[in-house]
Design brief:
Distance between the termini: 41 Å
Mean pLDDT: 80
Order of helices and strands: HHEEHHEHEHEE
Helix content: 40-55%
Structural class: alpha+beta
Strand content: 25-35%
Radius of gyration: 18 Å
Number of strands: 6
Low-confidence stretches: none
Number of helices: 6
CATH architecture of the largest domain: 2-Layer Sandwich
Strand order of the largest sheet: 3-4-6-5
Length: 171
């Protein structure tokens, strides 16, 4: 099923035909009734590992400027302040941080917080995919990713685990 899901997603992104696009979206919707495998897709030189149900790249295909201002905003802040510090609560799969990565915004630190473990586990993968493509094999000294897990117990019963990923780039 994973292979089929990945093929449907990639063909949805590549097709130029509106009819084929709609057919593939219906196939995707049908397949999602039975499973939601983790897939890896590439679009606009970005590579993300995500659940099949995640729509970031489909949204970008439908709305070409969707999330595209993030990199320009990050570059502007870096040029103006000399650095970028970003906090993303509800970081999902780390796509916002990935979309803001660039050589021009190289002095950046990110705090990515995601409570859903299945999504949080993909943050490291997605940052790693895209750092390698941006910097061709960065040295381990150029960035660091730390993982923290905290348990909140406000009710006296079992607590909720909060997964935090601290991602810092140094160049």
């Amino acid at each position: 099923m994973k292979f089929l899901a990945q093929a449907i997603y990639q063909h949805t992104l590549k097709t130029q035909s509106r009819l084929c696009f709609r057919i593939l979206l219906h196939l995707r919707k049908f397949l999602l009734r039975f499973c939601d495998p983790v897939i890896t897709a590439t679009f606009r030189e970005l590579r993300l590992t995500m659940p099949f149900s995640h729509t970031i790249f489909i949204n970008q295909k439908l709305y070409p400027h969707y999330d595209m201002r993030l990199q320009a905003i990050a570059q502007y802040i870096c040029a103006k302040d000399g650095r970028l510090a970003m906090i993303d609560v509800g970081a999902n799969i780390g796509d916002t941080a990935v979309l803001s990565l660039s050589d021009q915004a190289s002095n950046a630190s990110y705090l990515l917080i995601e409570g859903e473990r299945s999504y949080a586990d993909l943050i490291y993968t997605n940052l790693s995919h895209n750092l390698r493509s941006l910097h061709k094999l960065p040295s381990p000294d150029s960035y660091a990713i730390y993982t923290t897990n905290s348990t909140l117990d406000s009710t006296g019963g079992g607590g909720e685990t909060i997964n935090s990923f601290i991602f810092t780039r140094h160049f």
